[in-house]
């Protein structure tokens, strides 16, 4: 489909998906007994009321409802954002040591008190978004406090970048992994990517030269350390001196990063840096399109220089592909990137949306069959990737619809 004939169709379809499928599903996650939101719901809709509650899920819920309220200005989204904020403040916030806990039990008691910088980044990201709609001083103060904690305990003044994790008292720990599938390395692309988006959002609400400096350093780290000059993909794991420790490509992080680094550089206002980032963003999108997209239009999970070795299609990867490829279309004017974005959406419609139970499947295999045993809501399964993709595309498609 040619871009000129499909901008309006694309806009209407993703707005409909957000408002009639994604958001109504998350309204069902409210925990009226223990507060906040349920920590786990099975694919078939069964609520596991006694499941732990993860900081990443709660902060992503806060970001989502804040962002959709900013778009649609409907009272219930503000109320849900306030609910997520209150639970985060009352239960996840470590009032003695600062920062937020990694994991709570179903009643809000801490069961894993480590300070994973990935989670602190999402807290900063969500609080910044909430402040855009709820401009109370206490929100901005807490947002600033999280930023200062990250800078004090995670920032590496010698080699730059940020370390992965600490214990409750902000002391180094041996095992800094986000999950069992990750390598136990001091610095990762994943954490730096989400610090990048968090610092971008924070700079939008607090025009501070120190925040601007750190965001510029993060962008430069992606250009100098994380993007592999030989392949155009991200390297994923590093030691503290930025020596590469992995040979794996994550096509989802590539395409997500391609638009996040561009958004960050656009906010910084450095034209020389923007030129470099534009080139890097397009290279990441090109590498993803070349190596990570199969004939169905879906973006596969992982590979290396030998090719794809994990062809599953995760929900979040497809969501980020819609935005990343459209961003590349905006930067280049090349219709192949628009078509790749449109193909991602069509793949989602065909295979990822759960038309029976609502929301999106966690992932499908290469034949498009869902892994039904995987959760619809969980520590990692959240409303942020797909809601954000819809919101981003609605904003980006708007000017094209009016021409």
Overview of the molecule:
There is one protein chain. With 403 residues, the chain is mainly α. 55% of the residues lie in helices and 7% in strands. The chain has helices spanning 3-26, 55-72, 75-92, 117-133, 137-153, 189-205, 209-226, 251-268, 271-291, 315-332, 335-352, 384-401, and strands at residues 53-54, 103-104, 110-112, 115-116, 165-166, 187-188, 237-238, 249-250, 302-304, 307-310, 313-314, 363-364. A 3-stranded antiparallel β-sheet has the order 1-2-3. A 3-stranded antiparallel β-sheet has the order 8-9-10. Helix 4 packs parallel to helix 6 (189-205) and helix 9 (271-291) packs across helix 10. The model has no long low-confidence stretch (mean pLDDT 97).
Describe the structure using short key phrases:
three-stranded antiparallel sheet, 403 residues, globular, mainly alpha
How many individual helices? Answer: 12
Strand arrangement, major sheet: 1-2-3
Major sheet: 3 strands, antiparallel
Estimated structural class: mainly alpha
Question: In short, what is this structure?
Answer:
The protein is mainly alpha-helical and 403 residues long.
List the helices and strands and how they pair.
Elements: H1 3-26, E1 53-54, H2 55-72, H3 75-92, E2 103-104, E3 110-112, E4 115-116, H4 117-133, H5 137-153, E5 165-166, E6 187-188, H6 189-205, H7 209-226, E7 237-238, E8 249-250, H8 251-268, H9 271-291, E9 302-304, E10 307-310, E11 313-314, H10 315-332, H11 335-352, E12 363-364, H12 384-401
Antiparallel strand pairs: 1-2, 2-3, 4-5, 6-7, 8-9, 9-10, 11-12
């Amino acid at each position: 489909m040619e871009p000129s004939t499909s901008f309006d169709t694309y806009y209407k379809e993703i707005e409909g998906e957000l408002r009639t499928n994604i958001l109504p599903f998350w309204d069902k996650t409210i925990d009226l007994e223990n507060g906040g939101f349920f920590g786990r719901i099975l694919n078939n809709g069964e609520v596991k009321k006694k499941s732990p509650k993860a900081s990443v899920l709660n902060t992503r819920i806060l970001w989502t409802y804040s962002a959709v309220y900013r778009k649609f200005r409907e009272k219930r989204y503000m109320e849900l954002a306030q609910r997520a904020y209150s639970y985060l403040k009352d239960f996840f916030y470590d009032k003695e040591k600062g920062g937020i806990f990694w994991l709570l039990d179903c009643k809000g008691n801490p069961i894993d008190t480590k300070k994973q910088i990935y989670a602190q980044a999402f807290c900063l990201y969500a609080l910044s978004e909430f402040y855009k709609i709820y401009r109370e001083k206490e929100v901005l103060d807490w947002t600033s406090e999280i930023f200062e904690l990250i800078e004090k305990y995670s920032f590496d003044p010698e080699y730059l970048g940020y370390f992965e994790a600490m214990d409750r008292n902000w002391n180094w720990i041996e095992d800094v992994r986000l999950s069992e599938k990750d390598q136990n390395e001091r610095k990762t692309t994943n954490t730096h990517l989400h610090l990048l988006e968090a610092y971008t959002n924070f700079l939008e609400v607090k025009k501070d030269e120190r925040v601007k400096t750190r965001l510029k350093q993060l962008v430069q780290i992606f250009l100098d350390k994380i993007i592999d000059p030989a392949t155009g993909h991200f390297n994923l794991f590093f030691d503290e001196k930025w020596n590469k420790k992995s040979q794996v490509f994550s096509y989802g992080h590539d395409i997500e990063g391609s638009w996040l680094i561009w958004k960050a550089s656009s906010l910084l206002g450095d034209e020389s840096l923007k030129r470099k980032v534009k080139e890097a963003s397009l290279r990441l999108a090109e590498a993803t399109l070349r190596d990570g997209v199969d004939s169905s239009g879906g973006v596969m999970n992982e590979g290396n220089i030998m090719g794809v070795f994990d062809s599953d299609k995760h929900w979040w990867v497809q969501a980020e592909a819609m935005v990343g490829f459209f961003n590349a279309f905006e930067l280049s004017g090349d219709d192949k990137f628009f078509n790749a974005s449109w193909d991602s959406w069509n793949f989602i419609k065909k295979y990822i949306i759960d038309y029976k139970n609502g929301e999106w499947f966690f992932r499908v295999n290469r034949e498009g069959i869902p892994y039904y045993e995987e959760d619809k809501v969980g520590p990692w399964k959240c409303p942020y990737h797909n809601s954000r993709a819809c919101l981003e595309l609605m904003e980006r498609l708007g000017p094209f619809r009016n021409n």
